[in-house]
Design brief:
There is one protein chain. The protein has 81 residues and is mostly helical. The protein has 2 helices and no strands. The model has no long low-confidence stretch (mean pLDDT 78).
């Protein structure tokens, strides 16, 4: 059975992969030709939201890594007693 941290990391990894797929789809479907300013503004908002989502998922991964490190340090401390 997986620990809560492993489950959290798996969920975060799945979320990150989903974000990557969204980004790939958005970039592959965006025409390079000039777009009307309204479409450009919508694209900008979508990209900014996606960047924010990537940052949020990255923060989750960092926090999970910190928890793992703290857990390992506490195990080492308990093992040396």
């Amino acid at each position: 059975m997986k620990s809560l941290q492993d489950q959290g990391l798996d969920q975060s990894s799945a979320s990150f992969v989903a974000l990557q797929e969204r980004a790939r789809h958005l970039l592959s479907s965006s025409p390079v030709k000039e777009q009307p300013s309204r479409d450009m503004a919508n694209s900008t908002v979508t990209l900014l939201q996606m960047i924010e989502d990537f940052c949020r998922e990255g923060d989750k991964v960092v926090e999970c890594g910190k928890k793992d490190r703290e857990d390992l340090q506490s195990q080492v401390s308990l093992g040396s007693i």
